[in-house]
Amino acid sequence: MCPCSLEERQPWVYLTCGHVHGRHDWGQRSEGVAEPRDGEGSTTRCECPLCRSVGPYVPLWLGCEPAVYLDAGAPTHAFVPCGHVCSERTVRYWAETPLPHGTHAFRPVCPFCSAALGTPGWTRLIFQGPID
After folding, report:
1. Total of domains in the chain
2. pLDDT of residue 82
3. pTM for the full predicted model
4. 1 within a domain of the structure (yes/no)
């Protein structure tokens, strides 16, 4: 059995670019606390070490409600800003489907946690494999 905890093995994603990494604390922006934009919530903003883009850095979560999946495709995309993972067809559908918000508005939300989606509402995940 592996001596490391599940938290140490949890994959995290930079939502701006889609690069997936393990959890780390370096690369955080120190020039003051940026106010979260619409749909971002209170996520940590970090700089991706691969492409240098700055944006939210959140853990990836596999959505566990089978009723919201549209297909059995590979989990290649994640919702922005929550990080729930599912297939491209599923994220595109839910990002384009506005649901009632309050009494006078409609907006797309994550089907797993009801978090309001950002713009765009999803990102393609880029996994880094070992170099042969």
Report:
1. 1
2. 95
3. 0.80
4. no
